[in-house]
Amino acid sequence: MTNCSNNYGPRHFPEKLIPLMILNALEGKPLPVYGDGLNERDWIHVEDHAKGLVAVLERGRIGETYLLGGRAVRNNLAVVEALCAAFDRLRPEGAPHARLISFVTDRPGHDRRYAIDPGKAEAELGWRPTKVFEAALEETIRWYLANEAWWRPIREGRYTGERLGLAKAG
């Protein structure tokens, strides 16, 4: 069994923080941050998560639970600011993207911190996350920049629930 921290990376459906902020920034829309933005999350890149799952399948002990985390705890405001800094490098627009940040009322019961310790998985399985958050965030932004045909139908409400990114069976 595994538990993981918050995933990010290519093809992340745009309802969660990172893909939502990327697409809003691409469209020049506000970047809404809940409350004071200091809610903390541990982030794991989807490739690190997948490699962790393989390590558990290959070397994990039956009946054990392994926590797969990225060792990249950031508060939400810091994530959005890092995203804005990456956009300023990748798509400079004259004004900093941070101008799009807005603070909105926090949702009731919003957890202040989600973070896990992957030490057991690291020690017992020899698995470790390898992605550096800021570099992998920029890599993720580059993917969204290059794949508008994937995300545009979702943003325009034309997505009808079909699987995305998979070849059709022949």
Automatic annotation (TrEMBL):
A single Pfam family it belongs to is GDP_Man_Dehyd
Residue span, NAD(P)-binding domain: 2-140
| Signal peptide (from-to) | none
- List the InterPro entries: NAD(P)-bd_dom (IPR016040), NAD(P)-bd_dom_sf (IPR036291)
User: Its domain of life?
Assistant: Bacteria
- Name the UniProt record assigns to this protein: dTDP-glucose 4,6-dehydratase 2
In the UniProt record, the gene name given for this protein reads rffG
